[in-house]
Design goal:
heterodimer, A: mainly alpha, 69% helix, B: 447 residues, mainly alpha, three-stranded mixed β-sheet
């Protein structure tokens, strides 16, 4: 295998493609689509984040505007957590449209994250959304198929292949040369998108957040590069193995349909079928039941709370809760919050594990489907994937817990022990300066190390696919026939 | 007749045709099974709610018999959007939006948009239901069956023989196309028959409407391929062009439109409403009690007789809760308007694109469309109001919980209304097919 020969094939391939008029037509359409997707992506990203940030501030203002009141009222006044879309969401929407944007945080209750784009959309949304990642991961492969399908099959049909081989070129040189040539063409599509994303990140990305965005982009970029190489070599291999160029094209399109439409959809459907999600009622009532077993703060004769009360009374050497140095009702609520939160956490992580099992069918299908591999990789790195969403949910719930417990502690400290229950009125109150002291929720993106962990199977499968692509080229070079 | 028989034999002689027909039938059946699973899961959820609700009230009554106000703070009443069996064919928005709602008589806005437990990955990938098979995959099959209908004859050299022997060239092509169309219709009818058996569908208007629309949709794709093959280009060219058309119509245009709608019409009103209802209620804890109760009586003059008690708690409490809804009315109306606007725009755009149009009409017929979800939410609001009006006087009078017959509160059901103008549903597909035929007429002469 001589590099000089390979280079010849690369240059030849490049020239052949770039002299075609249809190529420029295709290219201009692609650039137009890219422009459309860029404008849409940036606009959507900015409007959505602005809306959410404005509302985060608005919600905060009304929190801080509260007068002196009983802390438990504040625990129920609650606040909202808004999910901020990561700056790489400009590139890859991922699950953005299907995950909720806002959750109400209050004491005792874990509310659902509401108002996803999908809840306000018609069934049309399932056709997909145009974004840069979709262009790079679905459309560019298709274009590469169209450009490369005849590269070897046509040479065979018109007899050029025989001449090439008889003049001393080897199969290896031809296959590698053409694959790299096609890969070089794909750079014409890849580089503009990469530049756009870099500029968009510099101009529109929130520079105050340290989310490792450049490292993330680097990984996405490298992933896309390997992906495009895999697609290029796959195209050349199929073209080599097909008797006519028509067959090659049909096969490639068949592969595209299978890998892009059918396989991902059936993988997720299988996951959903095998690991059914419990109903909301079943989920909630299990927690409710277990919480009652642990201790029911509403029940005056509950053994758990009675034992608690007796031990507290004993420690402080008093006979009535009203003689304690702190507000006992706040203490009980703190205990109750701890019990229900722990239970909720336990069951919620069980639920998330069910979701994960559902998604694992898709995640691991990336070992047979490079399209899924790159999609998983770019979604995870962009921070628009499932795990980033769950990370938001967990962070919001941790904040909720902090909020509830801080209010309970304020109650224990500042509300008179004589006030046994109830939270209305102007007498037993805490100064409003405490509301400001409690920091607002700020959505921080998922840690980079967690993203890497999440993307690990996709990374490995990309690596295997690269090795596989080389192997396939070598294997084909041994088996290929000139006629 | 012999001609048709020969054409049929010619068509089904090919292995590829058999394989693709079998494949699509298989996928169709899988789609039906998935739809059925979705319905089964809803039925399971309903059964759970039924048994739970009884115990739930028993427990609440035993805990808070003397305190009806507190009881109703906890008590949840189920209101169920009972899915039409047809939604097994087109799951639509029934996976994003909860179909079993359990609500308290507190502020409605705070509960209205609560979501079910859903995995966003499942939502994004969408359901592999029969509507998907029909909308995405049947056109591909049409392409596979017809792309080389003419070019094959030219490429194998038989076209000249045909031209000499046949009375008319069109009379040769049309039967060939019709045979293939009939084959696909057989598959379609077979799938709908299977669906009827598995999903226990009644053979009503909506069922035949769906079947008819599917048939029209397949016909549209036939007219489209007819137009393209009548250019008499090579098989490879035809295949390429047809698949590009498929891609543009089914993947790119809808994707572009979705991006357009979501960036052009964002929904900040939803967040406004959420904050407004929270503040509407909670701020009342700190404002004048009397003013709140007065506002409440303005809404419900019939309760004025309960006066302005200074010691009672629950009248004031539920008046405050009521304010969560009343004070967020402006934001709520804006939200509803925005959602309606979005739906209207979607519908308008979809009405010129057959596949998107078909998806929306399918959802409409199955009762799983966006507007039907809004209707369900409105009906839930009515249900909520009914509960309020029932319980408010009892709470204000300080009645004990055991004076109420709780058995009457079994889950209530909502049935989606199907408001569809027959012509509206058909027009797009018929017009699209006719347009395709019209523009192919000049081509036919040159065959």
């Amino acid at each position: 295998m001589k590099w000089a020969n390979i280079r010849l094939f690369i240059i030849n391939f490049w020239c052949n493609v770039t002299t075609l008029k249809t190529f420029y037509l295709l290219y201009s359409i692609f650039i137009l689509l890219t422009a459309f997707a860029t404008v849409g992506g940036i606009k959507n990203h900015i409007t959505q984040n602005n809306i959410r940030q404005e509302h985060q501030i608005k919600a905060r203002q009304s929190w801080e505007a509260n007068p002196d009141k009983h802390p438990h009222r504040m625990a129920h006044f609650g606040t909202f957590a808004f999910r901020i879309s990561p700056s790489l969401g400009i590139f890859d929407y991922g699950l953005e449209s299907f995950t909720g944007n806002m959750v109400f945080l209050e004491a005792h209750r874990q509310n659902s994250v509401n108002f996803s784009e999908a809840t306000f959309s018609t069934g049309m949304l399932r056709f997909g959304e145009l974004n840069l990642a979709l262009l790079l991961q679905l459309v560019v492969p298709l274009i590469l198929f169209f450009i490369g399908f005849s590269s070897i099959a046509a040479d065979r049909e018109n007899g050029t292949l025989k001449i090439l081989l008889s003049q001393g070129a080897t199969w290896k040189e031809i296959l590698f040369g053409k694959s790299i040539g096609l890969f070089a063409i794909s750079m014409l599509f890849f580089i503009p998108i990469l530049l756009i994303v870099i500029i968009a990140l510099m101009v529109f990305g929130d520079q105050t957040i340290n989310d490792f965005r450049w490292l993330r982009l680097l990984i996405i970029g490298l992933g896309c590069l390997t992906f495009l190489f895999i697609v290029s070599s796959l195209t050349i291999v199929v073209s080599t193995n097909s008797s006519t160029s028509k067959n090659a094209l049909l096969r490639l399109l068949g592969i595209w349909l299978l890998l892009v439409v059918l396989l991902p959809k059936s993988a997720q459907a299988m996951g959903n079928y095998w690991f059914p999600t419990p109903s909301k009622l079943a989920f909630q009532s299990t927690i409710e039941k277990e919480a009652i077993q642990k201790g029911d703060s509403h029940n005056p004769n509950d053994p758990h709370y009675n034992a608690l009360r007796d031990s507290v009374l004993k420690v402080h050497n008093v006979s009535k809760v009203t003689d304690l140095p702190f507000n006992y009702s706040g203490f009980v609520m703190r205990e109750g919050e701890k019990i229900t939160s722990t239970l909720y956490k336990k069951h919620h992580s069980k639920l998330v594990n069910i979701y994960k099992s559902q998604n694992d069918v898709t995640r691991f299908s990336s070992f047979v489907n490079p399209f899924t591999a790159i999609k998983q990789l770019s979604m995870t790195m962009a921070g628009t994937d499932f795990s980033s969403y769950i990370d938001f949910q967990n962070k919001a719930d941790d904040y909720r817990y902090q909020l509830a417990q801080t209010m309970n502690e304020l109650q224990m400290e500042y509300i008179s022990p004589k006030k046994e229950s109830g939270s209305e009125g102007k007498t037993h109150v805490v100064g409003h300066e405490h509301w400001k002291e409690f920091q607002d929720f700020k959505h921080k993106p998922m840690a980079f190390s967690n993203s890497i962990k999440e993307a690990f199977p996709a990374l490995i499968s990309m690596l295997l696919w690269t090795i596989g692509a080389f192997g396939l080229l070598l294997f084909t070079s041994k088996r290929a026939k000139a006629i | 007749m012999i001609l048709y028989k020969l054409f049929l034999q010619q068509c089904i002689r090919s292995k590829e045709v058999w394989i693709s027909l079998l494949l699509i039938t298989l996928l169709g059946v899988i789609g039906i099974i998935i739809g059925n699973k979705h319905l089964e899961r809803q039925q399971e959820a309903i059964a759970e709610v039924k048994t739970y609700q009884e115990q739930h009230f028993d427990r609440q009554v035993s805990l808070h018999n003397e305190n009806l106000g507190l009881l109703l703070y906890y008590a949840k009443f189920a209101y169920i959007n009972n899915l039409n069996p047809l939604s097994g064919l087109s799951i639509g928005q029934a996976d994003v939006n909860p179909t079993v709602k359990r609500i308290t008589i507190k502020t409605f806005e705070g509960q209205k948009y609560d979501t079910d437990l859903v995995n966003p990955m499942n939502l994004q990938s969408g359901n592999l239901d029969l509507s998907f098979v029909i909308i995405y995959l049947f056109p591909l099959l049409v392409i596979v069956l017809t792309f080389n209908l003419l070019s094959e004859e030219t490429e194998t050299g038989t076209w000249r023989l045909v031209v000499i022997q046949a009375k008319s060239k069109l009379g040769f092509i049309i039967p060939k196309l019709l045979i293939r169309l009939m084959l696909l219709y057989v598959v379609l009818i077979f799938l709908f028959f299977i669906a009827k058996l598995i999903l226990n569908l009644s053979l009503n208007f909506q069922f035949f409407w769906m079947l008819g629309l599917s048939m029209l949709y397949v016909l549209f794709w036939f007219t489209l391929t007819f137009f393209i093959i009548s250019f008499k280009k090579s098989s490879g060219f035809n295949a390429l062009l047809l698949l590009s058309v498929w891609l543009v119509l089914i993947v790119f245009i809808p994707a572009g439109i979705n991006s357009y709608i979501s960036s052009k019409y964002p929904v900040p009103e939803a967040l406004n409403t959420a904050i407004a209802q929270r503040d509407g209620y909670h701020v009342k804890w700190d404002t004048d009690k009397l003013a709140t109760v007065k506002k409440f009586y303005k809404h419900y003059p019939q309760f004025k007789k309960y006066g302005y008690p200074t010691d009672g708690f629950w009248l004031w409490y539920y008046a405050m809760q009521q304010m969560g809804d009343d004070d967020s009315k402006k934001e709520r109306d804006a939200l509803n308007e925005k959602i309606k606007l979005r739906e209207q725009i979607s519908k308008q755009i979809a009405s010129v694109i057959p596949n998107m149009h078909l998806q929306l009409v399918f959802n409409q017929l199955a009762g799983t469309g966006m507007s039907q979800q809004m209707d369900y939410l409105e009906a839930t609001d009515v249900f909520h109001e009914k509960l309020r009006l029932f319980f408010y006087p009892k709470i204000f009078e300080g009645k004990h919980a055991d004076t109420i017959d709780w058995n009457q509160f079994t889950p209530e059901y909502y049935k989606a209304q199907i408001a569809l103008q027959p012509l509206q549903g058909l027009a797009t597909l018929i017009i699209a097919s006719v347009v395709m035929l019209l523009i192919s007429i000049p081509m036919m002469r040159r065959l």
